[in-house]
Amino acid sequence: MKVVKFGGSSVADANQIRKITGIIEDDSKRKVIVVSAPGKRYAEDTKTTDLLIELGKSIKNDQMDSQIYEQIIERFSSMTAELELEEQVLHTIKSRIDEAVTQLQSKQKNAMDALKSCGEDGSALMLSAYLKTQGHTSSYVNPKDAGILVSDQPGGALVMDESFDKLYGLREREGILVIPGFFGYTPEGSLVTFSRGGSDITGSIVAAGVQAELYENFTDVDSVFCVNPAIVENPKQLLSLTYKEMRELSYAGFSVFHDEALIPAFKKKIPVCIKNTNNPQGNGTMIVADLPEREEHVVGIASDKGFLNLYVSKYLMNRELGFGRKLLQILEEEEISFEHAPSGIDDMSVIIREHHLSAEKEMKVMDRIKQELDVDTVNIERDMAMIMLVGEGMNQTVGIASQAAEAFRKANVNIEMINQGSSEVSMMFGVHSDALSAAVKSLYHTFFE
Amino acid sequence: MKVVKFGGSSVADANQIRKITGIIEDDSKRKVIVVSAPGKRYAEDTKTTDLLIELGKSIKNDQMDSQIYEQIIERFSSMTAELELEEQVLHTIKSRIDEAVTQLQSKQKNAMDALKSCGEDGSALMLSAYLKTQGHTSSYVNPKDAGILVSDQPGGALVMDESFDKLYGLREREGILVIPGFFGYTPEGSLVTFSRGGSDITGSIVAAGVQAELYENFTDVDSVFCVNPAIVENPKQLLSLTYKEMRELSYAGFSVFHDEALIPAFKKKIPVCIKNTNNPQGNGTMIVADLPEREEHVVGIASDKGFLNLYVSKYLMNRELGFGRKLLQILEEEEISFEHAPSGIDDMSVIIREHHLSAEKEMKVMDRIKQELDVDTVNIERDMAMIMLVGEGMNQTVGIASQAAEAFRKANVNIEMINQGSSEVSMMFGVHSDALSAAVKSLYHTFFE
């Protein structure tokens, strides 16, 4: 049994729905399908989920932006019409949207999550109906019915362990099952969504639950590239990766796959394949638990901008038991998560994603550090970028750091920060944002050309 | 006015006392002298401080090891006899030792610190008496009388800010003042010692207090070397260093100068000169606040063994606000100070000096981490060594990391950890202890040959 997830561009219009039906028909093992909300049909198009969020934001008391509302209904009605589906399908989609709007107007808990989930739900309703018209046994399966139980963290739900046993029961059901991605239900029955792009998470959870032989993730690229194609033209495609490698790559700027999506599949050792809906015969990229030893030690270069360095210095810091803990506790109390915390003898840096530190919080945090920790210096350096070299076995290979550092030198880029030694499969470098592109190109040249 | 500190080997016997008297006479600005306890006269000799500690440990109720006691008295009596000092000098030294022994036998607070301080006190009493016999106006100044106020942390006292104003009053006193190093007094009048080697601290505090034009630190080497001479034969001598460079070098294995000793001089911008008692005409090493830009960016390579890596991994660690803080808090509660804490996405390493983690604490810490943090993996890797490259402006120079990493590669040494980015003047590398020597030699070859 294979679990197959189709991304937003794969369900963007009637033609794409027909295309993925073909893909499902090509392999009788493709029995459980997870879908995203209809995505962009052309570059300037708006994703259904963005429309739903905009609609939600426009709601005040019993008011709403009816133009956006009509735009959403139109997207679904044009698809159901072109696919010649029963009227009941559009009716169900519309009443779910209306219900969420009413919940929002009466300020019910998690109502925004309910509205945001209507895109995926609509895709699933349409696809299962279309599969039936093509002569297949198929049913729409709501995540509550499937057994996807999550924590009550709107927009950032975490799956609960009980889900997996329940999901195993899906194996017994007849025909092709279509499950909307992106959301689950709390044990109390409240709908909650995962973080954005969370259909990948649903797919991974379902694949783990039914113990699929393969989790296929269909998107709009042929494979995972070894570097950001916006920086390096036509980069090398990756045929295979380990889970760990993919997770580290996803974290720092690899948008092809959702950062946390792999975890459930990883834990149950389900192989994952990234494929292209528009080129389903291509190799794609296989992601597995273990790989035989490869010649190349560096398999990918991830990079991301938008970091800052909170720098603190204090004489005799290293004599002060608990200094590091106290600094991190201030950040925790202000709900600021950090990425790394390299430290010297009398100084400590904390690398934070810029969007985690608003101007208001920045003032407060700086004041608290000055007053509570009695430091000599505290300052913030913005416009930092992170570059991550990823590859299994890298940390056991003499000379990788040397090649990497030489690549920075050739590009005349100063390395502001190096963090190596904790992760077994990655090495992280901090540079100024304006040097990012030159550094990544030079690293690509060193390790892939 | 210059403050001059003489180390243990410079006051080891009567001949050395005569030698340093000559040094003091050579420069009329050498007005405040700080002395260590008599050190080793020959390689197999025992330092007076070690004898005093041994004596202290032998004390049970009204018992003590009288052989060690006699050995201590003999060291002082042979010196006072050879220097032809009044009997009163030896009598004073002996009664201070006897008093401390009595305090220890009656289990008085801080009595061990009182006993440990008798070496420095004896040196100061002998030197001031000898200076008088040579026709100088000189007086012994007890740290309490001088105004050295410290915190009540036996064996690890920290100086209090009030001390500096009081010490400034020493400028008004007549003649050559001789102050014993290594200890101060709490505001309640209790004698407390600094950490071992703390005479350097006394010298630095006094130099800062009297606002000396120079703090001269006489020891038994011609200068500070750029690398551990036990690893590289006849290494380059350093003519000048900044405070920051010296502090970073001292931290990781540079035993010539006490780790924290520089801070008081640093804060008051007093220049420090390291010189050799046995070659006072040599250049020595000057340590100052700022230096004109130098050609070389790396000025020293420090290295030290005896570290361990506490490694923890947990899926989604980076989603868990407070994880790092909680881990450091467990260490803090078990009173284990850490050196560095590099982190990956789902893992974190904490570098700890091995002697901070006893076998008993190790069990407890591992258990607490497993249970309280619900981690996937926790393990300890021992036999780690740290290498630190030090140099002002290093972090703004493209290519240093590249040269360093290449040196490791040439020596076929795998870099287990790199920590760069917090300190402006250093770059730290972790390697296995057995690779330390090869790596340091290769780095020396790269940066100094």
From TrEMBL, chains A, B:
EC number(s) recorded for this UniProt protein: 2.7.2.4
Top EC group: transferase
Keyword field: Amino-acid biosynthesis, ATP-binding, Diaminopimelate biosynthesis, Kinase, Lysine biosynthesis, Nucleotide-binding, Transferase
Pathway terms, separated by semicolons: Amino-acid biosynthesis; L-lysine biosynthesis via DAP pathway; (S)-tetrahydrodipicolinate from L-aspartate: step 1/4; Amino-acid biosynthesis; L-methionine biosynthesis via de novo pathway; L-homoserine from L-aspartate: step 1/3; Amino-acid biosynthesis; L-threonine biosynthesis; L-threonine from L-aspartate: step 1/5
Alphabetized PROSITE patterns for the sequence: ACT, ASPARTOKINASE
Domain ACT stretches: 389-449
Catalytic reactions on record: L-aspartate + ATP = 4-phospho-L-aspartate + ADP
InterPro entries tied to this protein: AceGlu_kinase-like_sf (IPR036393), ACT-like_dom_sf (IPR045865), ACT_Aspartokinase (IPR054352), ACT_dom (IPR002912), Asp/Glu/Uridylate_kinase (IPR001048), Asp_kin_monofn (IPR005260), Asp_kinase (IPR001341), AsparK_Bifunc_asparK/hSer_DH (IPR042199)
GO molecular function, one term: aspartate kinase activity
Pfam families: AA_kinase, ACT_9
Highest taxon listed in the record's lineage: Bacteria
Family, as annotated: Belongs to the aspartokinase family.
Purpose: Catalyzes the phosphorylation of the beta-carboxyl group of aspartic acid with ATP to yield 4-phospho-L-aspartate, which is involved in the branched biosynthetic pathway leading to the biosynthesis of amino acids threonine, isoleucine and methionine.
Protein name: Aspartokinase
Organism of derivation: Halobacillus salinarum
